[in-house]
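input
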Amino acid sequence: MTKGKLSKLLDNNKIVFAISFLAAIAIWFYVVVNVSPETTNTIKGVKVQIDNTIPSQFGLEVFGDSEFYVDVEVKGKKYLISSQNLSAEDIVIVAQTNNVDSAGFRTLTLKPEVESSNYTITHISQKSVDVYFDTPKTIQMVIEPEIIANGFDIVKDGFNTGDVKLSESAVTVTGPSTEINKITKAV
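output
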């Protein structure tokens, strides 16, 4: 291109505006991707995964509360950790069960498992969760009929109810062994 044609091209305001606009977008994109400082973002509602590998070796399972959620603060480039690019499903927080070898409540330490080099986890809203472990047990018990209304026996002394027919003669109860062992009768 000759100097005259270039000078004539730059005299057109529309062309200068278009070139300036494209240059501004290119500079902005370069700064966002390569130069932008790291920032933090809080991801709410990250589900805690309970590692059941060790407890299952002892026949233990989780009873009671088994779903826990935490808020996680991540640090990284703004465009990588924005809510459009990073969600609660992308972050893995594991409750460590390496101290679980018998039934009872255990305080499990939460540990992040970073799956990406695009960010680092700087803070978790909780450091631990309390989980109840026990062996599962199922028992079947005969149901004993007991006729009571408003806390009082319906049948007065000297009267007879006759044969009480139940729709079910037995009940199956499943749950943690420690609690199941406390059941003495079913009425």
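quick obs: Helices lie at 3-10, 13-35, 53-57, 78-81, 177-180.
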